[in-house]
Amino acid sequence: MKKVLLFLSALVFFALAPEATNGxxxxxxxxxxxxxxxxxxxxxxxxxxxxxxxxxxxHPSFVPSELVIDFAGKRFRFGTIEKKPVILVMTGLGxxxxxxxxxxxLSLFEIEGVVHYGIAGNANPSLHIGDVTIPQYWSHxxxxxxxxxxxxxxxxxxxxxxxxxxxxxxxIRFADYTTSNVTSCSSPFDNLLNNVWYQPEEVFPIDGDPxxxxxxxxxxxxxxxxxxxRLLEGLELEGCVNSTTCLDTTPKVxxxxxxxxxxxxxxxxxxxxxxxxxxxxxxxxxxxxxxxxVCHQQRVPFIVIRALSDLAGGGTAESNExxxxxxxxxxxxxxxxxxxxxxxxxxxxxxxEVRS
Length: 356
Ligand SMILES: *[C@@H]1O[C@H](CO)[C@@H](O)[C@H](O)[C@H]1NC(C)=O
Ligand SMILES: *[C@@H]1O[C@H](CO)[C@@H](O)[C@H](O)[C@H]1NC(C)=O
Known about the structure:
- By secondary structure, the protein is α/β, with parallel strands linked by helices.
- It folds into 2 domains: about 20-145 and about 200-355, Nucleoside phosphorylase domain (Rossmann fold); about 145-200, no CATH class.
- About 30% of the residues lie in helices and about 25% in strands.
- It is built from 9 helices and 15 strands.
- The radius of gyration is 23 Å and the shape is globular.
- One 2-acetamido-2-deoxy-beta-D-glucopyranose binds near residues 179 and 181.
- One 2-acetamido-2-deoxy-beta-D-glucopyranose (NAG) binds near residues 241, 242, 245 and 324.
């Protein structure tokens, strides 16, 4: 009996531990969240890091409110853009951070839509540093099935029969990237790394049965958001850092077919060309697909706006100056986000205009 009491008192002690020590919701935070939600619904602005968030915090259209809620290592900042209530949150680098942060945002707050923005590498040789892209589809391109040496495209993958893995999306063959001439007499080239097959994510949508997986590879952004983003394409962007340093080409806003993400910093020209040719992707970066996959499963509309740096992996004169224009790219992505929100708010009017 004494032992049981001791055990129970230990439980009570842990339950009363300060809220900073774990990720469970406690009274004070819950009260702040409840109060915040009375002023929603909000647009959620999900931002990879501070140098992409700061230009928005300083933008004249952003009016901060007093309220800031810190929870589970994330800071949720409140305010308005053009009178629309918004919540800003920084994810940190990579897919895990972006997914967790987006899920927290959607689980804690009344969110009507998500705008994710930042800078990105470029895989599309017809675009330039400073161009701001709005892709229609996003994929996570680093969920892989790495095939054993000796097997090829006609061999079933392990667990393929269960529906765990598939050969539907395609693969990269490492031997195609061999450069040594040592074996050039014995064509075709071979490589022990063999093939990597791209896999769709397992997803569990909010309106599906829990624990019953579905699959998703190309996740579309919200069709309404994408449609109205066409109106951003004429937007004038800043092309100069100062009076003497300007981009070679006038930057533009452009809607593109696809972007792709992975927790991999891509600085390799061969892989960049491969994914461009295989998937027709323009921006390549490390967060958007996680935001997309969470919004897709929670059935919350979202759009992604990413300003391009130079071609990932180099290979052009532009590469040498990419660092000079990173801040300019971040500023331009913020400019497009603010303009997107203006269009979103005035869309009923625009709709009437188009019809009349
Ligand atoms: C391989 O050999 C070809 C033909 O001799 C040559 O053009 C090429 O530069 C060589 N590649 C490497 C990586 O040595
Ligand atoms: C403009 O910016 C470039 C790149 O940061 C710098 O090297 C240059 O000194 C600047 N020029 C002026 C006039 O500020």
